[in-house]
Amino acid sequence: MSRLIVISNRVSRPNGAANQGGLAVALAQALRESRGIWVGWSGETTENFTGHIGFAEDQGVKTATIDLEEQDVDEYYNGYANKTLWPLFHFRIDLAEYARDFEGGYNRVNQRFADTATPLIEPDDVIWVQDYHMIPLGQMLRDKGLQNRMGFFLHIPWPPTRLLVSLPHHTKLVSTLFAYDVVGFHTEEWLESFRHYVEREMGGTVDGDFVTVGDRTIQAIACPIGINAQEFASAATSEAAQDMHRKVRASLQDRSLIVGVDRLDYSKGLEERFNGYARFLKDHPEHHRNVVLAQIAPPSRGEVESYQQIRATLDSLAGRINGEYSDVDWTPIRYVNQGYPRDKLAGIYRSAGIGLVTPLRDGMNLVAKEYVAAQDPDDPGVLILSRFAGAAMQLKDALLINPYSPEEMSDAINRALAMPLDERKRRWRAMMNSVEQQDISWWRSAFTDRLTATRQEEPEVEAE
Ligand code: GDG
């Protein structure tokens, strides 16, 4: 078995923060099994970059991290990654900032990761680079002479060509993807957009999974990420979850709970969600006092202005809706800016008769899958899901809605509240089957098996 080297912006340690996700767990398992290394930013800053690598081993997972300079964090992480690529790739060119410093910082930091990782890599290692922070890394590793099998996975959408061309030097960035052997996306839609770009803007050709530009052929595949469904289902019946469930139910006094859980991010459609819910309250006075929307939204990327703005917008919108509809003994929205440990979160999902997931664009959206996995099979809740989440391709038995339409959201909430038990069970079973079958281990193996097989399929031909 080849060693796996995972390179991502941040490294999650197995027993790290309570809110660590399934991705960290899945990758940790693969790293442990292959005695691999996880390389990334420590999350710390240093005055002058030294290239010093911090090594650690935690529950069998080896990590190698570097500290970055403040300027690196500003230009690479807050800058090019989160002010340029994130909004653009989520179809928000209105929010995307194109600054030369950002691009310079992004390339500088990627080079730092390449310099850090190269001496750690052995010839037979399989390298798996994660996400939009690290697109050019593979090319930089090739430039250092590495011939390893190398894969890249994009966790966010791939934007339509017409939007992507607004990025200065877009072809330069995209061409670096051809240094990898396998490039993965969550859905056919994102894959299709990638192929379209390559054909239109780079004169490339597509033959099944094989995409060629010049003399480089890579495999581009759709490989939807999943969750650890079994673990999440058990978390939902754990002591901590049951305790949370009792607490929540007691506070509701027989009211129905609608739950939303999202990083506080403009791509998650939170403003639209609040407006859709307000529309529901307006359309259905008969439901007043019978429902509560609990929106859990831990703040993220607080140094980026667009995130400060969405936070201010939501603060005032929640206040306005509550001001308009609350009574002395009922508040329609509970808007919470703190995060919860995973088992408690699972208990909150299970307490809610409706999961409301309304991103305007989302690579996948794991919350939708977690909500499904946490339900009581004998009395499952209803998932209302934006058709613009990658998860909508798999969870077709959710109530799929257009999040830009407050009327559709209002109708879906009304329908979910009235849905008979047998329909809820039927829809839930179908969704749970999908969540269980294409779970996080499936995703990891589907990608790494493809990557490992690349060199067997196409043996390297020695030059004469
Ligand atoms: C990116 C892509 C893609 C949230 N609040 C709490 C908490 N969370 C956890 C959720 C979930 C995770 O954070 C969020 O995952 P999402 O998939 O919903 O969204 P992004 O963070 O934007 O992730 C996305 C994903 O990468 C994977 O490829 O699906 O499309 O944007 O796991 O549970 N966890 C805890 N407490 C909280 O309060 N413990």
From TrEMBL:
It catalyses: D-glucose 6-phosphate + UDP-alpha-D-glucose = alpha,alpha-trehalose 6-phosphate + UDP + H(+). This is Trehalose-6-phosphate synthase. Gene3D superfamilies: Glycogen Phosphorylase B. CDD domains: GT20_TPS (cd03788). One of its GO terms (biological process) is trehalose biosynthetic process. Belongs to the glycosyltransferase 20 family. Pathway: Glycan biosynthesis; trehalose biosynthesis. Homotetramer. The keyword Transferase applies. It comes from the Bacteria. Its EC number is 2.4.1.15. GO terms for molecular function: alpha,alpha-trehalose-phosphate synthase (UDP-forming) activity. Keywords: Glycosyltransferase, Transferase. It holds the Pfam family Glyco_transf_20. Probably involved in the osmoprotection via the biosynthesis of trehalose. Catalyzes the transfer of glucose from UDP-alpha-D-glucose (UDP-Glc) to D-glucose 6-phosphate (Glc-6-P) to form trehalose-6-phosphate. Acts with retention of the anomeric configuration of the UDP-sugar donor.
